[in-house]
Amino acid sequence: MNYFISAGEHSGDMHGAALVQAIRAEDPAARFWGMGGPLMAAAGVEILHDPTQASTIGFVEVLKNLRRFKKLLDTFEQSWTENRPDLVLWVDFGGFNLALAERAHKHGIPVLCIFSPSAWAYGQGRAVRMGRCVTKLAAVLPFEPEFYAQFGVDTVHVGHPLLDRVRPSKSRDEFRQELGVAEDERLVALLPGSRRQEIQRLLPAMLEASREIDKEFPQTVFALPVAPSIPQELVQEILDSVDHAPVKLLDGRAYDLMNAADLGVISSGTATLEAALLELPMVLVYKVSALSYRIYMMLGNKEYKKNLRIALPNLISGEMTIPELIQENCTGQRIAETVNALLRDKQALSQMKEKLSVIRRQVGEPGVMPRVAKIAVELAGASGK
Question: Which CATH superfamily is domain 2-159+365-384 in?
């Protein structure tokens, strides 16, 4: 079967590569082409465009790239007239891939979506559109099937692929020893994200917070794993421009760090769920342009805005399991105050860990991508008959 796969950022590239490998186990002669990054390319996908180095966050930022996205849609659609896929695989990057799915539907090509475009947050519009063009939604969050059923989207909860990926390579004690963290020291993980914009907006505040945390808790080690999509020189430039406590830079190793840390300061997104699966107490930080945030709030449905939560652990638990510092609250001072309060309160940290263990069970069972692959091969086979 021929599969067109579309992913838009580093995490999508990672999950896309895993899905390709799982489909190949079911369909060894499968051919893949589409949009993605180096991990998908290494998995054997013919990459027509790699957006992972320039992925954006925020509505205004995306609007600036509309012309480029429109051109990509036209290019991909043209490729289907020359080489029709049996299935379009939509992995994350909701705004772009929803438009891509609509074009696939116009050509009678089935679409399998994994990682929905958060229609439960933005209201009915996206869900209604998905009901018209998505053949199957492989839901990664446990509350999604009930929501999307209202809009005629054929949905099955498969679990989150991170269940199969979040595996530290070393034990907590081994990694702390490797970092030189003494038994009486605290280890705080700083994870500002995998996009350039996130690093530029969030890392300075994290570094300012490290300085304030170090004043109250001088026996603290800070470590920052640099995502492969982020140039080391960008991180170093910010480190040189902000007064901060000493920070250990790591080449990746995020899972080892999360497993070994006592607390994390983490950008909104996949990393918060990764940390939850490792039961790491954390503080979420999130900041986009003021205009993007205003649009985000305008588009959000009333119920979502009434109980505003953006952290995946909080969305899954249905309560504020971890603190969220958003927009004007995302400052070095507020981060430091929140972290210090948690470090003072061992009972609060323990309770957070217990709630995170419950979330881990809610997310699902391992073996996620093989389950999605079976759905993909079945849909492609039906299309190719």
Answer: Glycogen Phosphorylase B; (3.40.50.2000)
